[in-house]
Amino acid sequence: MSRPRDHHTALAVAFGAACNAALTVVLVEWAAGDGVPPWPDLPRGLALLSAVGAAIGLVAYGAAMNNLLDRRRDAAISGTRPSASTGPDALVLVGSLVVAIAMATALGRDATWVTLVLAMLLLFHNGVAKFIPAIGLVVPGSLVAGIMLVPDWQMPMPTVVWLAMSIVVLTSIGVHILADKRPILSGRALVVVVFAWFVLSGVILTLRGMGANASWLAGHSPVVLLWPLGGLLLLGLTMRGVLPRSSTRRIAARRAIRLVALWQPLLAASWCMAVDAIVAAIVFAGLWAVGILLAGGSRELAAISGEPPTWR
Q1: Are 46 and 173 in contact (CB under 8 A)?
Q2: Tens digits of per-residue pLDDT, 207-225?
Q3: Is residue 312 part of a domain?
Q4: Structural domain range at position 182
Q5: Per the domain annotation, does 311 fall within a domain?
Q6: Is 86 a domain residue?
Q7: 61 part of a folded domain
């Protein structure tokens, strides 16, 4: 039972990461207008494909590393030799990293360096950080922000990246508490998490410097925040209907992760509506509907009506 659920969770996370990366390309192209984007020799379609490919490659790399390290750790605890089934994980690990770097290379040298830094951060997270709540609860937010910054680490609307990072950090805290994970999140660790979130927020919001180009909303009024806030309100109402119907706290935690990931295209659509990128907003909204229907979201929403989701 746990294997299919984990599989659906990984697919949902990859889907959400791909939509976040695509949103960055859309916003950068929109901000450039008739100017020159960071990838002047790359058509918009190839820029989108490269950003999405790098995002999916990084997520696959992290998932394969997590599986590989978990199996080797289990073998070490039980005193047995690692299973031969770790071979496919090793192949996915190497292949996905190569794909991520190759896709990022098409976006330029800066994108390649950001991807390499994220690969090292994934190694640190899976090997060390996830066992230390004070660190491990912030790293996922850093990874989401980093994936969004692969196409352009000086994207014109850093508030978009900041909000995505904050949502993931908050979700990580909630999932850790909801699933009753060990070690428990102590008060001191929570203080460290909040402090790290403040530091990460400062870094993200000042990537464009502190001068005239440092507008957090690319010159827009704060009123545009009503669009993504509306998407978050809908997400909160959906979680309120879905999570209490879970049979166990761990199942509820996995559902929360999947719902947050599947909601990324809707949040992307809301940001596009905020900047009047109507066509992009329609596309992202369509992707959200497809994700809900095909990537496992329909199984989660079925819980609202009391129907238990079925897993093959």
Answers
A1: no
A2: 876 544 445 666 667 788 8
A3: no
A4: 2-305
A5: no
A6: yes
A7: yes
